[in-house]
Amino acid sequence: MANNTKYIKNYIGGALQPALSGDYLDNFNPATGEVYSYIPDSDAKDVAAAVEAAEKAAPGWAQAEPRTRFRLLMRIADIIEQNLEEYARAESVDSGKPMSMARTVDIPRAQSNFRFFATSVLQFGSESHPMPGEAINFTLRQPLGVVGCISPWNLPLYLLSWKIAPALATGNTVVAKPSELTPMTAYLLSQACLEAGLPPGVLNIVHGLGPKTGQAIVEHPKVKAISFTGGTSTGKQIARTAAPEFKKLSLEMGGKNPNIIFADCDFDEMMVNTLRSSFSNNGQICLCGSRIYVERPIYERFRDELVKRTQFLKVDNPLSKDADLGALVSKQHLEKVQRYLELAEVEGGNILCGGEVLQLKGENEGGYFMRPAVVDGLAIDCRTNQEEIFGPVVTLAPFDTEEEALALANGTPYGLAASVWTQDISRANRVAERLQAGIVWVNCWMLRDLRTPFGGVKQSGVGREGGQEVLRFFTEPKNVCIKYG
Ligand code: NAD
Fold first, then answer.
1. Residue 391: CB within 6 Å of ligand 1?
2. Cα 301 to ligand 1 centroid, rounded to whole Å
3. Ligand 1: residue whose CA is nearest its atom 37
């Protein structure tokens, strides 16, 4: 499908084009450490062109028959599905994640995002508030106009489409910016939009650096709302920029998620899922559990079993079908994770396994590979336990009481997700109620229903995505009050 992926292009006003400056940034393959393609180094002028195109397309798209929008979004999903292998390979090469994961998780979920929101908007209703004998109020939900969608590198097409699809389905036009570390599937998506016949300017994708391209999107006065997923410090910067303009904001940010494991849990089921929640995508999923608290009677058994299973994980070329873990996304990120492991030792932690940087052979010699690490012996308030590492590192600690487990779990500035493992349904309910998190999984992890609210509390987020929540975010409610004659 894609002819030239060496020079990625912006998608503006229905045309694929380089940055107006003609400048490019290097795009690295994290599994080889080599530059394998180039990204437009876009600036405020490219963003202004994208906003202009989006503004021009806005009235037609907002007034299009809902069925028209539905058909186009379904068509985009079909094109992604027909090219699953190409998309999965592109995602794997760009991000370092195993191709098996891109094929079974990332790309299927991107299709589902388009299908889910194409369909759900057809069933989206709004309220009416009758004043008997006097008047009727009804809520008219209208698109906002031009909106900005900014996404991170860890689940590139999955998270970009999680924003774009509901924004388009509700009748907005979009200026989107994928992460500069993983631009390739967004480029493939722009080609899919052309093939599907999406009207020019309805979706615009501008590539480039966060502080330059992303900042220009947030600053642009005609962009009415920003839906952002990424780090908490970037979210703060976006909030500072957008607040004086009173833009609508949805911020999905970092996490330091706790897993609470009680002694009465189904041990085998818990072990399988705890390994997944620790190291899927090299721990580079915002929902990964990075702090594991285990009730003391099973602490040693759990620790030894987790270390054993972690040591079995195969770190390899992400395109190899045997790879459990691929490469970390960038050299800078690998070095950041290494620094946290050094810090963990300084803070008194024991590295029970992993943490070594691996040098694979052949074409992967220069890739950013690391063995997954398990650490124990750290205090709750140390930096390793308080700051987001976002890599293949988990910390363990025992607890004695439910109260203590809750204090440990809630004892960070973050509040995205948590998992609880117990067979006691009353305890599960009590703990779920008191956890400071936007999402609580009981006896499972990453079991997702797209209808549910998705987001975090404290420093993990503002607002909710998913289901009806995001349809509300991308529309403005207007109350119309009609007095009876
Ligand atoms: P990041 O904040 O560095 O970048 C995210 C996006 O924001 C990128 O596209 C980047 O170019 C852009 N950006 C950077 N500076 C900007 C600015 N000043 N204005 C506008 N845009 C700007 O995050 P990352 O390193 O790409 O992703 C990792 C982070 O994302 C982790 O903290 C992780 O927890 C978080 N994350 C959160 C969720 C969630 O749903 N809560 C999901 C996935 C990832």
1. no
2. 37
3. 253
Q: Is the CB of 223 inside a 6 Å radius of any atom of ligand 1?
A: no
Task: Tokens 């009981």: give the residue.
Answer: 442
Residue 479, H or E segment: strand 475-483
- In the reported structure, the alpha carbon of residue 210 is separated from the centroid of ligand 1 by a whole-number distance in angstroms of 9
State pLDDT tens for residues 446-455. 999 999 999 9
Residue 171 Cβ < 6 Å to ligand 1? no
pTM over 0.85: yes
What is the distance between the terminal CA atoms of the chain, rounded to a whole angstrom?
A: 60
d(CA 437, CA 429): 14
Shortest-distance atom of ligand 1 to CA 232: 32
Question: How many whole angstroms from 254 Cα to the centroid of ligand 1?
Answer: 8
150 and 228 in contact (C-beta within 8 Å)? Answer: yes
Nearest residue by C-alpha to atom 43 in ligand 1: 286
Domain ranges of the chain: 10-253+460-481, 257-449
* Per-residue pLDDT at 3: 54
Please say whether the beta carbons of 305 and 262 come within 8 A: no
The ligand 1 atom at the shortest distance from the C-alpha of residue 255 is: 34
Measure the CA–CA gap between 258 and 416, rounded to whole angstroms: 9
Give residue-wise pLDDT tens across range 363-407: 999 999 999 999 999 999 999 999 999 999 999 999 999 999 999
Domain 10-253+460-481 maps to which CATH number in 3.40.605.10, 3.90.850.10, 3.40.50.2300, 3.20.20.70?
A: 3.40.605.10
pLDDT tens sequence across 401-459? 999 999 999 999 999 999 999 999 999 999 999 999 999 999 999 999 999 999 999 99
Residue 1 has pLDDT above 70, yes or no: no
Ligand 1 pocket, 43 CB below 6 A? Answer: no
- Whole-number Å distance between alpha carbons of 26 and 46: 18
Beta pairing partners, 148: 175, 226
Domain 257-449 listed as CATH 3.40.50.740: no
